[in-house]
Specification:
This protein is elongated. The longest helix is centred in the last third of the chain and has 5 residues, at about 205-210. Residues about 10-20 and about 205-210 have low confidence and may be disordered. The chain has one helix spanning about 205-210; strands at about 1-5, 20-25, 35, 35-40, 45, 50-55, 65-80, 90-100, 105-115, 125-135, 140-145, 155-160, 170-175, 180-185, 195, 195-200, 215-220, 225-230, 235-240, 245-250, 255, 265-270, 275-280. The protein has 1 helix and 23 strands. By secondary structure, it is mainly beta. Helices cover about 0% and strands about 50% of the residues. Strands 2, 3, 7, 10, 12, 15 and 16 form a 7-stranded antiparallel beta sheet that branches. A 6-stranded antiparallel beta sheet has the order 9-8-11-6-13-14, with no helix packed on it. A 4-stranded antiparallel beta sheet has the order 20-19-22-23. It folds into 2 domains: about 1-200, Jelly Rolls; about 205-280, Immunoglobulin-like, CATH 2.60.40.3080. The N and C termini lie far apart (about 55 Å).
Length: about 280
């Protein structure tokens, strides 16, 4: 019998390393367990057809103008109940939505297929588009994750996440379980199922490697005020936390970090002619 099930597996903690900007609706990136999916529980147990969804509007994260989509990262759980050690495909689709998701009309703008086996269960996976796609920062971008049906391989494969909070809903659809349209987990009785599914913004590789001539940050480590010392006028400063989430956008040469949680942060600084990326430690 097909039914919606929730899978619990080992806890894994993940820190995202920035080679791009990361937009996330997850308040915590911990990968704790497999979440809601349509599945058959009789032996050998397996998932059926499932689609997992999340939407992002870049302007909600402080972006303006054009926004270049690099791809997405996300977590899946994978249980090999047949003992054959198979590899399954995961299709990642990117859409823009004309009208608020899930009610709007979706236009496919990019797709990427990756493969997965049991060794990658509850790890952070990444799907990069073959070429970044540019949208407006005010566009609503919808990501759809469709894992291969596990029926033929006796595999339970489903999106993973935690119950630690989110600031926008997670969605599922599955015709096999009569969920014909994307529906929030809360609406089908699982309000504490929060997927880890993030949108990645492309930044030029040179930006992630460059430093600015004559520039430094001090003190580092820092407790209160971080000074950005530059020979050129600073035009833009963006600070990211250890989850890759943008927490500040400014053009000031001093940043008050006194209320920041202790840890490692990244700051991207742009002058008229150069851009550099630096890390600092908040004590």
């Amino acid at each position: 019998m097909k039914k919606i099930t929730l899978l619990f597996i080992a806890l894994v903690s993940v820190i995202i390393v920035n080679a791009q900007d990361v937009l996330s609706h997850s308040t915590d990136q911990t990968i704790a367990n497999g979440l809601v999916a349509c599945a058959v529980s009789t032996a050998p147990a397996h998932t059926t057809e499932n689609h997992f969804w999340r939407s992002y509007t870049p302007s909600d994260f402080g972006y303006t103008g054009d926004f270049e989509i690099q791809g997405a990262d996300f977590a899946m759980s994978f249980t090999d109940n047949g003992g054959t050690n198979p590899t399954l495909d995961i299709v990642v689709n990117f859409y823009t939505s004309a009208g608020a998701f899930p009610g709007g009309v979706l236009t496919l703008i990019g797709t990427k297929t990756i493969t997965m086996d049991v060794s990658q269960s509850v790890t952070l996976l990444r799907a990069d588009l073959d070429a970044p796609f540019t949208v407006s920062s005010t566009d609503e971008v919808v990501i759809e994750i469709t894992p291969e049906d596990g029926t033929d391989t006796s595999v339970d494969i489903r999106i993973a996440g935690n119950n630690l909070g989110e600031n926008a809903p997670s969605y599922i659809s599955s015709a096999a379980c009569s969920i014909l349209d994307p529906s929030t987990y809360a609406s089908i009785g699982f309000p504490d199922s929060h997927m880890v599914l993030n949108l990645l913004k492309a930044i030029p590789a040179s930006i992630s490697e460059n430093t600015i001539d004559g520039f430094n940050i001090a003190p580092n480590p820092v407790s209160n005020i971080l000074n950005l010392n530059s020979n050129e006028t600073i035009e833009s400063v963006i600070v990211f936390n250890s989850l890759g989430q943008k927490i500040l956008s400014t053009s000031k040469s001093q940043i008050d970090v006194s209320n920041y949680t202790a840890g490692i942060y990244t700051v991207r600084v742009s002058t008229k002619n150069q851009t550099g990326v630096y890390s600092f430690i908040k004590k």
